[in-house]
Amino acid sequence: MFKKIRRLLRNFFTRTSTLRNEPLNRASLIVLIIVDLFILVNVFTGLSEISNWHISPAQAYPCHSEWRDYRNSTSQKLKDKDSEILRSTISFSSGRNNQTSFRQQNLEVEKQHLGSVAGLCLEYSDRQDKLNNPTNQKAVKEIEQLESKINQLTATNQEIRSKYDSTLLEKIAKQNREQSINQVSAEKALEELTKNDQSIANLNQQTPAAKLIIKANSESINFLQLLQDGKKFQLLDQGFQSASFWYPSIQISLQAIFLLPLIAIALFIYNLAQNKKYALVSLLSWHLLVILFIPLVIKIFEFLQFGAIAQFIFSLVSQIFGGLLFLINYVYIFLIPILGFGLIKLSQRRVLLNSKLQSAVRVQNSQCIQCARKLQPYDNYCPHCGFFQNVECSNCHGLTYKHLGYCKHCGHPQDLEP
């Protein structure tokens, strides 16, 4: 087993770094590495672009997070959460530099991607746009001005209170006023604190009236009715969860659409170059195959870790074993080697690493079966690597080529299993 792995690795590096069975010089090797890096960067860039081609769950359901946060709010000011979401929506709408509405913004995303924005979110965006009217904008500005004044007075009170405490201690200690570190007396500080507290109380009484103006109009009522509709949110949440479940599968499918034609073209060119003995074309196409298989393998592992299969296993283990989620790692530890075993068996039978196909090509080209260097007629051992080229036929006991299906003397089938 280890000899076979070493032989495969040796063949891989020989195929990758030799031209007409001669090692590449440094200049050629540098050029080849630069070409490989350029191709690899462009492959990963293309994969990133095509994976974002389909609309993501967050883009398809742009209102889900805001809707979910509103419904899951556990603030003690539950009555104020209606005012807060109305105010934040109006402030965001009026604060944008462009005049694009929420609906137009969502439809623009839909035009740039495969898939569509959820109808409920388009309805949500319509009601958001209707909130941005002059009456609501005026009320929001009034609330912001009131809160700004309250914050200023609160900060002033904090500063006065810190000085008032030290002045009060000086008074208790019967220290002379001329020796005080504060310019304001304790009585004056207390008077300013009382005055500011009264102003803050008056401003706090004005704020609910401004909030009531926003909540009272029909656009706000319709918007809040949609937010409070539990059945519609349940449909929205189900759609978002379903989109999140299938999105990795869609991404890997798009990435396969990008990669597989390139791999097929590179494989075709490689086989053609091998048959026509175009050494340089064969070398470049081989490197292209290797470069293309690297992101393919990486994306397959990402899908196995985060795709629909991973989420299904995660949910299954969660339902059966509760919080023992570390058992998912046991599943992967046993599942991935089984999958790898199947892929190795398939590649050994069907792909370029098939020793029978490789040996047939090298025998036709009078090359060593192991290192692919040129041999003279009737060479039983390779003068470069010392590999014995023949095997004894089980029928006529004559020497025939290794890894080929039939004896060259009697035509008897050979046992190719190790």
Give keywords:
single chain, 418 residues, mainly alpha, two-stranded antiparallel ribbon, 15 helices, 4 strands
Explain what this protein looks like in three dimensions:
The chain is mainly α and 418 residues long. Among the domains are: 168 residues; 64 residues, no CATH class. Helices cover 71% and strands 2% of the residues. The chain is built from 15 helices and 4 strands. Strands 1-2 form a two-stranded antiparallel ribbon. The longest helix is centred in the middle third of the chain and has 47 residues. It is elongated, with a radius of gyration of 38 Å. About 1% of the residues have low confidence.
Reported for the largest beta sheet, the result is:
2 strands, antiparallel
CA-atom Rg in angstroms: 38 Å
Average pLDDT over all residues: 76
Tell me, briefly, the overall form.
elongated
Counting helices, strands and paired strands, the structural category is mainly alpha
Give the tally of β-strands. 4
